[in-house]
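Problem 12. The chain below contains 189 residues. Write out its predicted structure in token notation.
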Amino acid sequence: MIRYLKRGKDVQIRADDDAKVRATVESIIQDIEARAEDAVRAYSRQFDSWDPSDFRLSQAQIDAARKPLSAREIEDITFAQQQVRNFAQIQRDSMKDVEVETYPGVLVSTAPPYHGEPHPAIVTAMAMAGADEILVLGGVQAVVAMAVGTQSIAPVDMLVGPGNMFVAEAKRQLFGRVASTSSPARPRR
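Solution.
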């Protein structure tokens, strides 16, 4: 007899959960398309308790985020980034280079607030990695805002990065309007 240590959800329960996620995300997308910045702010307050005057961090805010980090934390970020760059270079050297920048742009990156503030280590890592703009915004509202644009957030051509089932569903629903891969997001001009 088979003995299970843990079982997944029943197929119907999973299907019902998936339908709820799809409907929730569809509703958020429609709301942000209709109310733009006002909707993004409402969801940011609701989900992250975050309502700054500007979601985009200034250079002074980025510099301030670095200050509470220890020398060891900065070294760890530097080490991790060097490992990623080394691997990426080895991988790139093994392929024929076909990269073409058809239009110049900047790297835009987002990170959800952490305990009502920008997370110092994440902001520092993003800045050290070369992000030109850092938005403290997360979740479906960040994905939709960057995909469709708002008064203060320019729409991008590509979205990347991890996320929960709601973020994954938002990327799925927005596919075709915005690319979603493992490459950096770039603003449309």
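Discussion. Confidence is low (pLDDT under 50) at residues 182-186. Students who got a different answer should revisit the alignment rule from Section 12.3.
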